[in-house]
Amino acid sequence: MKLISLNVALKIDNSKEIGKFIKSQNPDFVAYQEIMRPLEKKVFKIYRSQEDINKIAKFPYKFFGPKWIASKFMKNGKLHMDFGGLVEQGNEIMSKFPIISATNEHFYQHYSDCLDSTNWTNEDEPRSVVIAEIEVKGKKLQILNLHGTWSKDKMGGERALSQCKYILKAAKRKNIPTIIVGDFNLLPETKGIRLIGKEFRSLITELGIKSTRPKFDDGTDKGENVIDYVFVNDKIKVKDFRVIDTKISDHLPLILDFEII
Asked: Which range of residues forms the domain containing residue 85?
């Protein structure tokens, strides 16, 4: 089976390109981060990624977990970003196999209206993890998909360490084949990533991946670093793992070929 994890990028009009890429790869599962769900028809096209990607790369089963809701961002009392209408941003898991159960769990802040982004670099935004249990030909598979707390230096600090402790505990609730994926917003040498790596195999670390992002500098973030990960437990047999060099997003697709043991 094949799983793809990808942060689709909030600020890039790339839904068509991502949809075509996912369709061409023909995965069994996809984990999207930073995907936008429009709640009104007037939402601008660039912020309709969930709707537009799913028109091209269709799956029979899906679960979307919103992190926040907003119609615009204000910064120091001035308009900073206009979505054109009400939208939700979140994480989504797509599957060719039935999703038996799924939850959306906030590990930092709560689902809320993110109107004021004045102190975003210090306060960040609500963050959550989608946890789905999937039935695959009589076997159970658990996938955790998250978009981690932000810090400019990607070292995270106590907030990010708390995030990783939560993810690790959640992943171990059930003793079944488990895959943890997502944009952790953390470098490999951070305490949180090393903590998870003690109990789950970090395929990024094992393969010595040097970057999960293309080269860019948008004034907030810089690319060419490792902040996206795939972790697996001992009930997942890894057949192949690779990071695809492409410009379809400000993150690179992580692709895992695997079997359930």
From this structure: 2-260
Please say whether the beta carbons of 52 and 113 come within 8 A: no
What is the CATH classification number for the domain harbouring 140?
A: 3.60.10.10
* Residue whose tokens read 């963050």: 127
d(CA 194, CA 132): 24
What is the Cα–Cα distance from 143 to 133, expressed in whole angstroms?
Answer: 7
pLDDT-derived band at 217 (thresholds 50, 70, 90) equals confident
Cα 34 off chain centre by: 6
Specify the number of domains making up the chain.
Answer: 1
pLDDT recorded at residue 81: 95
Rounded-to-integer distance, Cα 249 and Cα 193, Å: 23
Q: What residues contact 222, with CB distance under 8 A and at least 6 apart?
A: 216
| pLDDT the model gives residue 203 | 98
Verdict on whether the full-model pTM lies above 0.85: yes
Strand duo 178-183 + 139-147: pairing = parallel
Q: Is 76 left (phi over 0), alpha (psi -120 to 50) or beta?
A: left
